[in-house]
Amino acid sequence: MGDLAKIFKAYDVRGVVPDELDEPIAEAVGAAFVEETGAESVVVAHDMRESSGPLADAFVRGARSRGADVVHAGLGSTDLLYYASGSLGLPGVMFTASHNPARYNGMKMCRAGAVPIGGDTGLTEIRDRAAELIGTPMAPTGSLIEKNLLQGYAEHLRTLVDLSANRPLKVVVDAGNGMGGHTVPAVFGGLPIELTPLFFELDGSFPNHEANPLEPANLIDLQKAVIEAGADVGLAFDGDADRCWVVDERGESVSPSAITALVAARELAKHPGATIIHNLITSRGVPELVREHGGDPVRTRVGHSFIKAEMARTGAVFGGEHSAHYYFRDFWFADSGMLAAMHVLAALGEQERPLSQVVAAYSRYHATGEINSTVADQDEALRRVRAAFAGRGEVNDLDGLTVSAPDWWFNLRASNTEPLLRLNAEAADETTMTAVRDEVLGLLREVTQ
């Protein structure tokens, strides 16, 4: 149990291959997954990592040993797996470690309709049952159907955002040797897009840079290529292509908060008065803009399980996170970096202004971005910051410590897995933002010294 407890996280499975996650474990998880979901059929997909195919095949053996038929979609992005689960009405499993280094792999699981499986919704039971089954002989009885779902996925996305009448756009895409190199050509092919591909070769060793667009160093190649090509926009996907980062025509990063507000405005134009979900460290401008467009903004904790649960509860049409995850009601409440990218291309291509001017309307404040600090005593650090800011703003404890004043706010959250505190701060002007940021970081340094 010890080993499985280490790799079964709150929302997924992730560990080093083969030390922590290997084929016998994947096989046992496959059997346990079928037992927990009661599924007669399941769908499986995997990313381009060297270990992903063998792990997926082992999972399939375990699932079939419990009598389940398996639809094997082969290579795919995580949102392709969500499409498969939603369109086929089947529980599904995606083998990926997202943006983690090459030696990692993992599983993202969902029930039929792409409903996520987490620690409170079946993942713990799957872990415990798999621990009992490891090493048990398993003879497949269910059938295996290999099915290429890429074209269906691409066609479905095109029904949600129609780009066919757009003005022609020059688009640079950095797939980071991840699954965007597989899905982007299928989705963009035949559209009025002049595509410049960067690192589309599927390579789970990530020879060019990490497939993590949240790290600025991993955007340098894209930013340079956008400027050199005179492109209208740059898009960067993470390893399993469920996140998308946007760069404007100047090579400047566009805040995911601005993208959240832009997509929210587009969804509200189709669904007047609808609910929009945003997490508590997106820009203050997001709920402001949602209200101005007639929508109802709802604030949640950080994390996809909270976003998806709140979307399901409220019937929200869209949700956005600072981490460049974007969730859509018309995509089974699941997240899709590709669908968010298509909304950006539609907003850009249906008028003549450059992207920097389009997103300027959705960028109202100055933000720090997320700053991580290693802190030995998280509770003491939070206590000091709370005391220092007492009486200076409204205090909220929904997810860490949030202090809000009329012209600034900050949130300080503890990492669930590392001795880190994560700071996000925002203000009406850069001077105030810098002052708030430096004061909080100074207090954290006192605790670490």
Automatic annotation (TrEMBL):
Gene3D superfamilies: Alpha-D-Glucose-1,6-Bisphosphate, subunit A, domain 3 (3.40.120.10), Alpha-D-phosphohexomutase, C-terminal domain (3.30.310.50). GO terms for biological process: carbohydrate metabolic process. CDD domains: PMM_PGM. GO terms for molecular function: intramolecular phosphotransferase activity; metal ion binding. Signal peptide: none annotated. Residues 370-441 form the Alpha-D-phosphohexomutase C-terminal domain. The keyword Isomerase applies. Residues 6-130, 152-251, 259-365 form the Alpha-D-phosphohexomutase alpha/beta/alpha domain. Its cofactor is Mg(2+). InterPro entries: A-D-PHexomutase_a/b/a-I, A-D-PHexomutase_a/b/a-I/II/III, A-D-PHexomutase_a/b/a-II, A-D-PHexomutase_a/b/a-III, A-D-PHexomutase_C, A-D-PHexomutase_C_sf, Alpha-D-phosphohexomutase_SF. Keywords: Isomerase, Magnesium, Metal-binding, Phosphoprotein. Pfam families: PGM_PMM_I (PF02878), PGM_PMM_II (PF02879), PGM_PMM_III (PF02880), PGM_PMM_IV (PF00408). Belongs to the phosphohexose mutase family. This is Phosphomannomutase/phosphoglucomutase. It comes from Nonomuraea glycinis. The gene is manB.
